[in-house]
Amino acid sequence: MQYINDIDYDYIINKHHDASKPWNGMGRFVRRDEIFDPATGMDADALRDGFLAQDEALKDHPHPIRKARALEFIMKNTRISCDPRDRYPSVNANDRPLKKTIVDEWKREVLKQIVPEIGAKRSYFEKEGIVTIWPDYDHSMPMWERVLSLGFAGLLRESEKARHAKEWDEEQEIFFEGIKITYEAILTLVDRFATLAENTEGSERMAKALRQLEKGAPKNFYEALLLDYLYFLISEHIDYLQVRSLGNFDRLFYPYYKADLERGITEEEIRTDIAYFLAQFVAISNYWNQPVYLGGEKADGSTEINELSYLFLDVYDKMGIYTPKIQIKVGKSTPKDFVCKALDMIRRGNNSIVFVNDDTMQKALLREGATKEEARLCHVTGCYEYSRQDSYFAQMNMLNLLKPFEYTLHEGYDPITGNRSGLPCPPPSAFESFDDLLAEFKRQFCHIVNEAIEVVNGFEGYLSYMNPLSMLSATFPTCLERGRDAIVGGARYNDSTIAFGGLADLGDSLMMIKKYVYEQKKLTLSEFVSILDQNFEGHETFRQMLLRDREKYGNNLPRADEMTISLAKFCIDHVYGRPNAKERGGIWKCNFHVARHSYIWGDKTAACPSGRKCGEELSKNLSPALGQAREGITATVLSFTKLDNTVMASNFSLDLAFLPSAVRGEEGLEAMYGVLMTFNRRGGHAVHFNVFDAEMLREAQANPEKYADLQIRVSGWNVLWNNIDRWEQDGFIRQAEAL
Amino acid sequence: MKATIFELKRFADHDGDGIRTTVFFKGCPLRCVWCHNPEGLTALPQIAFYEHKCIGCGKCQKEDFNPDACLGEARVLYGKEMTVEELLPLLLEDREFYETSGGGVTLSGGECLVQSEFCAELLKRLKENGIQTAVDTCGFVPREALDKVIPFTDVFLYDIKAYDEDVHIRCTERSNKIILENLKYLDEQGKTVEIRIPYVPDYNDREIEKIAHFLKDFTHISRIRVLPYHNYAGSKYRALGMKHSLPERLPTDEELKSAKEILRCITKISCP
Questions:
Q1: Quick one: pLDDT at residue A526?
Q2: φ, ψ for residue A600, nearest 5 deg
């Protein structure tokens, strides 16, 4: 690998997974006790037993204290390593020990004992494939500027300062005490790392940097990277709070980069530092990828793209890696050559890059009352979600839009499980007009959404009870002003989001019913439903006719687009602005991004009037249904952008697939750029490109060894082709065949 | 006025600058050995049958069968009569993509200038709408045909297949005299021309140097493109029930590189 020699790289990628074993993207939190020196601490079992025994004695104490003490136990006793082959230290307690023990226990307590009726409903929704609901500890992001400018020691100092500035009630005192214990514990670990590094030949630079981080803020580029990494490692792998972005890399690290160059550090050394930093995330290699973003605008509106932006992309490109995943904020001020560099990487198979439209995000945030500066500096987290910086954005549930539609056609029953999950309603024969049918669907939809929101609102107030977020909260000034955990109203903005899946399948299905039942009267609705109930068995000709009908969302045909877009608007109107739990004090938003559930729900979702059979995946994001965008990329962009993406600050995303032959040469690059610019000009929010053809994918399926580096963008994240299941691969092949 | 169109291709990014929509007109005066658009050769509509796509829906067995009804899209109608009024809105649909990429609309074929009057009218309407226009031609057309479209065409994509007349006849069954003269005429008229040379081993690969010398004195050639021959068209010939004698040998990267080098050196014109 460029920048990192093979011996070092081999060591690094084996730190979290045993790279000789089959890849398991879901199993990133595995323990590798055996590769740590036993003299440095306890093995993971002893560690768990130790902090649990300690917790037993603390049973009468409030959760923030208990969690902080457990963290402290781990920081003091985990096995640690530092190695001259690496520039970053490690711990063996990287398997989320707190989650699997105390946090899961507190979650069980809330859902089974404190609000059992809410917990039971949640389980039912999950089982039926209607709504997946979870307490979201997955989308937060610390305020990186403060982390970097203060360091762990500074964050602790600031918290203590706030604590002593005025009188607090008991709960608030506990909040501050939790932060104090947490950060003192983190500093203990930093000290242990430093001592080990001082005693490890070849790790002098790491030792010096760690000593600086123990004292306060980083002073150079490497120290800043090390701090970013340590924060990530402790938060995500031990404290159980995902760090859903490493931040605006070029903005955050540019001052350190610049200062290093002035000190005489070479660009080559900077590149090597970046490479070792990125390799940490390759080593972890989780299924959803670790996000980091580039570009956007400074508070004054000038572009954030600087030399470091180019350098970062270049190192990434030359390393040939696929994680972290990169979002690029593209606005009017973003230089074309930078965007084209990214596009060129994409067409060479690097599908880890997604574009988010800065203008659209800013407009939406301004509409929500953000200042210009706040809008310009907004965070991008997760796949393409965005928010003002000091917010705790939570995506609490994913809802399958086809379920209320199935209830509409089956008198309130689920045709797959036979359970009555919807509201009782008349049989299909009773819907005399299309409007009657649509009205009933809306009634069923509102019912399910209301229930889902009620479930979430019923437990959201307990989020910090289940998992106190001391580490994160210390980075938010408002948390310190309010003496409150970020997840329950400590952050300035506390919105909750519901994600709707299968929008295009729903829109296309309603369109086909409207056309063939109510306009052309080819068959009755009852006959149609009975064909669906047989999963089109014996009706393949009819199904082919449905599939071939181009009046589907994504072809820039007015009626079909209007159907799907108006449903999207209906979903938005029904949800947007409703209050979430009073403890959080935010509002509800929605998006259409259900990640992997497009696949997971396939089996649980009956055949659709659009021609989709039971078992096939659902449409992804706000993209057209599989194989239905028959008029090509330009038409799809035109259809997608009919929905106002600034209606609220939430993610609206489109997946586009290109044939490699369409994007070759200089003209191909210009064409990709033209598509992106048109998408942005028309106000689209997020778009990602897949470049593949069916033949290549079939070949890759048959000969995985030859395609070890082939990447596919699944839905907001990218993954190596060889690391997705065969049925997911088949879905991509079908998509490519439709190109 | 109507023209026979066999395809509208959106997001065409190799038919001129930027993102374009290309209109393929049916009918061509040449018979190139390597032709990869056999559905564009004859002026009359044709129905192709792609056997592997047939799902046995039986629609084609009915008397009033229309290929549009074929559920597997196995039967495809090449050649649809369309008016300017029908075409225009379809071509304007992607206008924003043209604007952001410097693209526009390309008329191609077959040989679009066989239906030159229609082309002129269509191009005029496109220009009225501020669309950049390109005409992709083999050049084997009467001078009057060129005159009709010149005022409304921003760039010509002009094929040169051989310089030597005998070679040209062997490759295309026609002389190239008119073609070479028409190219000179366009240059005299000050029209921007992009030259396209299909590179077909064993057919015109020895013509490159001669073509280069012919082109070196032109003043309005924006660039020369060498288009590597490919043999993907075999299945289309079969589907159309047409015989073909497609060359077997494909150009190598070295051959293409050297052809471009020769063109660049002699003409001093960009040859990407």
A1: 98
A2: -60, -40
What does the alpha-carbon distance between residue A55 and residue A69 come to, in Å, rounded to a whole number? 8
Q: Is B55 at the interface with chain A, CB within 8 A?
A: yes
Residues of chain A with C-beta less than 8 angstroms from the C-beta of B272: 665-666
3-state secondary structure of A349: coil
Superfamily in which the B2-43+81-231+250-267 domain is placed by CATH = Aldolase class I (3.20.20.70)
Q: Give the model's pLDDT for residue A696.
A: 84
**A395 CA to centre of own chain:** 9
The answer for residues whose C-beta is within 8 angstroms of residue A343's C-beta and 6 or more apart is: A669, A672, A673, A676, A689
Interface test with A, best of B8, B13, B36 (most A CBs within 10 A): B13
d(CA A659, CA A662): 5
Q: What is the pLDDT of residues A390-417, one digit of tens each?
A: 899 888 799 999 999 999 999 999 999 9
Q: What residues of B are in contact with residue A668 (Cβ under 8 Å)?
A: 13-14
* Cβ-Cβ contacts under 8 Å for A624 (sequence gap 6 or more): A504, A552, A553, A554, A555, A636, A639
- Total Cβ atoms within 10 A of residue A637: 25
pLDDT score, position A692: 84
Residue ranges for chain B with pLDDT beneath 70 = none
* Cβ–Cβ gap B19/A674 under 8 Å: yes
Question: Which chain B residues touch A635 with a CB distance below 8 Å?
Answer: 10, 93
Question: B-chain residues within 8 Å CB-CB of A638?
Answer: 93-94
Using the Cα atoms of residue A598, residue A604, residue A608 and residue A612 in order, give the sign of their dihedral.
positive
| CB-CB neighbours of A559 under 10 Å | 10
Residue spans of the domains in chain B: they are: 2-43+81-231+250-267
The answer for B 92-151 residues in CB contact with A (under 8 A) is 93-94, 96-97, 99-103
- Give the residue on B whose Cα is nearest the Cα of A539: B57
Question: For residue A715, what pLDDT is reported?
Answer: 64
End-to-end Cα, chain A, rounded Å: 35
| Contact at CB, A632 and B11, closer than 8 angstroms | yes
CA atoms within 13 A on the CB side of A535: 11
Q: How much is the pLDDT for B31?
A: 97
Strands B192-199 and A325-330: unpaired
> What pLDDT shows up at residue A725?
79
> How many angstroms separate the most distant Cα atoms in chain B?
61
The size of chain B, in residues, is 272
Residue A306, SS3? coil
Contact check, Cβ <8 Å, A682/B11: no
* Three-state secondary structure of B183-241: HHHHHHCCCEEEEEEEECCCCCCCCHHHHHHHHCCCCCEEEEEEEECCCCCHHHHHHHC
With pLDDT > 70 as the criterion, what percentage of chain A qualifies?
99
Which residues of chain A are modeled with pLDDT < 50? Answer: none
Which residues 244-263 of chain B have a CB within 8 Å of chain A? none
Q: Would you call A631 an interface residue with chain B, using a CB distance cutoff of 8 Å?
A: yes
Tell me which chain B residue has its CA closest to the CA of residue A677.
B100
Cβ-proximal residues to A636 (8 Å cutoff; 6+ apart), any chain: A554, A555, A556, A623, A624, A629, A654, A656
Select the residue of A556, A673, A674 nearest B93 (Cβ to Cβ): A556
Residue with tokens 């402290």: A72
Cis omega (within 30 of 0) for bond into A324: yes
User: Residue B23 in contact with residue B8, Cβ under 8 Å?
Assistant: yes
Say whether residue A400 is in contact with chain B using an 8 A CB cutoff: no
Each residue of B210-231: pLDDT tens digit? 999 999 999 999 999 999 999 8
CA proximity to A315, closest of A287, A292, A289: A292
pTM, two decimals, is 0.95
